[in-house]
Amino acid sequence: MSETSKQSTASGLLSISPLIVFLCLYLVTSLILQDFYKVPITIAFTASSIYAIIITRGIPLSRRIEHFSAGAANPNIMLMIWIFILAGAFAGGARAMGSVDATVNLTLAILPDKLLLSGIFLAACFISLSIGTSVGTIVALTPVAVGLAEHIGIQSAYIVGLVVGGAFFGDNLSFISDTTIAATRTQGCRMRDKFLVNSLIAIPAAILILIVYTVKGMSMNMGSIETTSIQWLKVIPYLIVLVTAIFGVNVFIVLALGILATGCIGFFVGIGFFDWFNALGNGVQGMSELIIVTLLAGGLLEIIRLNGGINFLIEKLTAHVSTQRGAEFCIATLVSLANLCTANNTIAIITTGPIAHDIAKRFQVDARKSASLLDTFSCLTQGIIPYGAQMLMAAGLSSLSPISIIPYLYYPLCLGFIASLSIIFRFPRKFSKPNVS
Q1: Residues 6+ apart with CB under 8 A from 205
Q2: CA torsion angle 361 366 370 375 (round to 10)
Q3: In contact, 93 and 262? CB cutoff 8 Å
Q4: pLDDT of residue 222
Q5: Is 437 helix (H, G, I), strand (E, B) or coil?
Q6: CB burial class (10 A; 0-12, 13-18, 19+) of residue 272?
Q7: CA distance 418 to 108
Q8: How many CB atoms lie within 10 A of CB 282?
């Protein structure tokens, strides 16, 4: 290696060292403490951001801070934040008026006895697709699933794995999922287009797993499930969001209509005006950490880009990439590694999205396909790591070890397999251009 090349590598490593600082603070420290939620991710990002500003040379401190602030205030970052705020408000309003419970009850009420396992999986898929959160789906369905497991004599870990898998179906596809929002905004494509690409990967995986659960369920002796009367009015907000989103209505209008529906129907069923306001506020506050991390990640990446770190990373990651297939695998690997380090699929997408966008642009990968790959592989990784919020929540609600659930996570693994095949065999064809250099 020449002296110039060594200097270039040293400069490149220094430029990406803020990411290394972040990983050391968050990942290494968490491993030492054996608790991935002991170190707040906001503090890890704050410290690495300060470090990034300090190591930036050649411009005054005030200019470095301006560059950081400009990155945090990037139009794509700000649009994501406005959507996060509206999504949080909708989730809070819907939860307060009982829409979550009503939606769960509706899906359980229509399950055929012999198709209980496949029905629970479909319920998890539908609920997560409607509410856009895997954690919310797991919280709603896991207690019911554990009770059913005891009733029908099946392992609790098996049916909890079924719920977790279905929860990630919607997390990956939903129009109001924060992963969908982050993936589409960072890649510059419409949610409807990303949904179309994603559905051609996720739905075949879901169908395969549905067949597995159907065969398993048909061989079991199950009793009928008791449910309360269906409160159709309370299901309407989720139906409004789902239908309007599918028809391509602007996401701001979709969420505004959903919020308005929770208020109107909430008043009708007895929710006070100020109680509704408080519920909306609590929902927004629930998104506060994600909003802060999004701002910090945007600023941090701008400083790294300013110092040449993004170009250095792309050069190293694509050094042996000469085809679109290789570029797509590169994007998949990049977001998967980030997710392993952060234990948060949304943060992984926000962190790696700009890099993935540059890779996609360089190798002419369709933005809709790159957005799909970002979302899909982040959900795959988040769905199988034992220290992710979803797994910890499911384990806590079912009094199980996260490790005991992992062998039954059929859907995330099948999703990753189908997504890998989509890269290898270039499908969906419409969104996978010829494999050129």
Answers
A1: 411, 414, 415, 417, 418
A2: 150
A3: yes
A4: 55
A5: coil
A6: exposed
A7: 29
A8: 16
Q: Which of 381, 380, 379, 409 is nearest to 394 (CA)?
A: 409
pLDDT digits (tens, 9 = 90+) for 194-229: 999 999 999 999 999 999 999 988 877 655 555 567
Q: How many CB atoms lie within 10 A of CB 281?
A: 14
Name residue 360's amino acid: A
pLDDT category at 36 given cuts 50, 70, 90 is low
Nearest to 160 by CA among 117, 210, 211: 117
d(CA 35, CA 46): 20
Q: Mind giving me the DSSP string for 274-294? A: HHHHHHHHHHHHTTHHHHHHH
Cα–Cα separations (whole angstroms), residue 408 to 48, 147, 218, 385, 414 = 37, 18, 18, 13, 11
Nearest by Cα to 41 from 285, 283, 291, 286: 291
Question: What are the two backbone dihedrals, phi and then psi, of residue 229, each rounded to the nearest 5 degrees?
Answer: -65, 145
DSSP state of 323: S
Under a CB-based contact definition with an 8 Å cutoff, are residues 324 and 366 in contact?
A: no
Q: How far apart are CA 252 and CA 243, in angstroms?
A: 14
Q: Is the dihedral of CA 377, 383, 387, 389 positive or negative?
A: positive
* Residue 339: partners with Cβ closer than 8 Å, 6 or more residues away: 345, 348, 377, 378, 381, 382, 385
As a whole number of angstroms, the distance between CA 167 and CA 290 comes to 20
Q: pLDDT digits over 357-367, tens only? A: 999 998 899 99
Q: Return d(Cα 307, Cα 296) in angstroms, integer.
A: 17
Q: Please state, in angstroms and rounded to a whole number, the distance separating the CA atoms of residues 394 and 401.
A: 9
Is residue 279 within 8 A of residue 272, CB to CB? The reply is no
DSSP-assigned states of every residue in 24-67:
IIIIIHHHHHT-TTSS-HHHHHHHHHHHHHHH--SS-HHHHHHH
Chain mean position to CA 400: 24
